[in-house]
């Protein structure tokens, strides 16, 4: 079931991942449920889907999309990463809806996982996300921002904290920063728990929890000099002052006080004096 983040502007869709020691991107021993997220940005009759979620949640996501945009409706798609937790549902979405534009980055072909869908039809609608145009590479259209609709723009940037080519999106109108595979630490105690952490609920997140999730994905961080990462992150959040952090996994963080608290947790995990945050052997 989708959750409304901003009425008539943005919803979060997707299913839940049971944390039962079979998930490699969370700390060992994690419990509860981690949301797998994709986001539908709406402006009038224009829609942009940020990521497409995990294949295991395909039916749930497609049915929610049909309820939101109508069966066979038009939607553009933006992938924050070319990894399967972001791109898995491209083919089923393309079968059921009209993909008007497809925004991707990096060199991984998002059509590699397709079976018999007409690839050429979508290739002509694909736009390469790059900070600036270069004279090399393919002939794909390139963009550093996505025009969702007149007056509604999603600004695109490649974050300093990443492994593979990764792109963050900034929606100034809703104050939302889409952070892909960063800020993924928010988990739900049960399937009925809220998938949004805000000021209306008790937030039990700890610095150790945030560090554990960060190090599970970026295992090299505890052994690295993270000053530039910390400075970049602090400057980015100061400049944007986001109201919502929207990761591809984990609970959505909503409210500027909540965002600032979780940013402080993240900066602590990126601080050299953080030996107490590093998970110790049992």
Number of distinct beta strands? 17
Number of separate structural domains: 1
Beta-strand fraction estimate? 25-35%
- At CATH level 2, the architecture is 4-Layer Sandwich
- Measured as a percent range, the helix fraction is 10-25%
Separation of the first and last Cα atoms: 38 Å
Spatial order of strands in the largest sheet: 1-2-5-6-7-8-9-10
Mean pLDDT: 86
Helical stretch count? 7
Tertiary shape: globular
CATH class: Alpha Beta
Low-confidence stretches: 131-142
- Structural class call reads alpha/beta
What is the makeup of the main sheet?
Answer: 8 strands, mixed
Report the CATH topology name.
Metallo-beta-lactamase, Chain A
- What pattern of helices and strands is seen along the backbone? EEEEEEHEHHEHEEEEEEEHHEEH
Q: What is the name of the CATH superfamily?
A: Ribonuclease Z/Hydroxyacylglutathione hydrolase-like
Radius of gyration: 18 Å
């Amino acid at each position: 079931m989708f959750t409304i983040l901003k009425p008539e502007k943005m919803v979060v869709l997707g299913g839940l991942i049971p944390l039962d020691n079979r998930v490699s991107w969370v700390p060992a021993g994690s419990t509860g449920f981690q949301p797998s997220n994709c986001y539908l940005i709406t402006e009038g009759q224009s829609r942009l889907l940020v990521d497409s979620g995990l294949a295991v949640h395909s039916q749930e996501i497609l049915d929610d999309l049909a309820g939101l945009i109508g069966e066979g409706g038009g939607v553009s798609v933006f992938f924050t990463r070319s990894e399967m937790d972001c791109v898995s549902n491209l083919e089923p979405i393309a079968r059921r809806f009209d993909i008007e534009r497809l925004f991707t980055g990096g060199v991984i072909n998002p059509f590699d996982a397709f079976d018999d869908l007409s690839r050429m039809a979508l290739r002509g609608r694909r736009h390469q996300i790059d900070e600036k145009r270069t004279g090399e590479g393919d002939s794909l259209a390139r963009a550093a921002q996505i025009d969702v609709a007149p007056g509604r723009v999603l600004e695109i940037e490649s974050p300093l904290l990443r492994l593979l080519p990764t792109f963050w999106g900034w929606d100034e109108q809703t104050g939302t920063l889409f952070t892909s595979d960063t800020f993924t630490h928010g988990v739900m105690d049960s399937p009925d728990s809220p998938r949004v952490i805000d000021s209306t609920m008790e937030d039990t997140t700890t610095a150790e929890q945030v560090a554990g999730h960060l190090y599970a994905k970026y295992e090299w961080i505890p052994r690295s000099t993270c000053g530039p990462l910390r400075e970049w992150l602090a400057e980015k959040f100061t400049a944007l002052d986001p109201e919502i952090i929207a990761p591809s996994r984990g609970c959505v963080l909503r409210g500027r006080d909540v965002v600032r608290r979780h940013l402080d947790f993240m900066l602590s995990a990126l601080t050299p004096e953080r030996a107490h945050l590093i998970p110790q052997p049992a």
